[in-house]
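Hello,

Our lab assistant flagged a job as stuck in the queue for most of the afternoon. It eventually completed. Since we weren't sure the result was trustworthy after the delay, we are filing this so someone can double-check. Below is the sequence as submitted and the structure that was eventually returned. Let us know if re-running is recommended.
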Amino acid sequence: MATHENCVSVVFDLGSQNTKAGFAGESFPRCMIPTTLGRFRRSGLSDGFPDVTLGEEAIKMRGVNHLDWPVDKGFIKDWDDVEKLWHHIFYRKLHVPPEEARVMYVIHPLTSKRDKEKITEIMFESFMVRNIYLGLSPALVLHASGRTSGVVWENGYSCSYVAPVFEGFPIKNATITSQINGKTLTECLQNLMNKVGYSFTTPTEIELLESIKAQLCYVAREYDEEVVSENNKIKFDLPDGQHVLIGEERFKCPELLFQPHLLKLQCPSIVDDICTSIKKCDLEYKSLFYNNIVLSGGSSLLKGLSDRLTIELNKQVKDLPDVETNVDAMSSRHLAAWAGGSILASMDSLNGFWMTKDEYEDDGADRVHCKFF
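-- returned structure --
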């Protein structure tokens, strides 16, 4: 745990599905909870029930609760709910009084100026934190991989983008968002399972689909060959003792990343997005970027993804002189942004770059735009 002038450094990474929080200098977050709040469905009959439940408790009580997810596509959509979530993490999970902490907060590379001001305002006004640093997610992912320049392909539950980073600064005009994310893949698997007679519709059943996707799905090296080959069905045991059999659905679902038209999506593949993003950057950085492609996010953990991506990118650059592709798939890439924030927040060289409470009181929330580009 990194400390500075009697204050502890805390790292926050709010994802659309899960929130990671912990202390700077540590390898893994101390808490990882669902980014959700539960409210009792029948407001007049809530005696004995808490008004709001958060994280795992909200999931456990979803039979009687309505669940709200305050983060969507990497952006905060309900500030009151997020403030409750931050309070829960500070006091119930990390057991740290926020007025004795400085916060490294991970943000989406396309976060608006207004959202940056709002995060800063709540942290200083409501939680009275000592200092704050807004770290752009792709730059932190590269820090976690030991780089300062490269291209990050982030694929989370409802957020997916490609972002080139040069010397720690994401290139905003070359950042490309995609509609193919973890939720899209789950919906694709749901459709495929429905075609063979398995219906997954309730929230609990969708969670089972998430487990099937994570445990059994893989990316085929050669899709056309995999389709015509004999695929043995694999049994997946359900909580009630029954089981489902899964065959070609295992590789047809992730193939959506490379062939979106399979689900009739009118959007580019991840290979097209990466190449387009690099083309928007200076020509002299092309070789550097192709040689430093880093995967991040929970939905990038699919087996065989990095191998297939390398194959497809090599096809794109085979006629380009002195350009080689290298795809780095860290084993803990679902935590890469948090880990990068943990590394950066523990470095003494960052001490002059935090936004302090004094600066906030002198200049207001506008100061955030001068400190963090």
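-- support follow-up --
The delay was a queue issue, not a problem with the job. The result is valid. Residues 221 and 308 are 5 Å apart (CA to CA). The chain has a mean pLDDT of 91.
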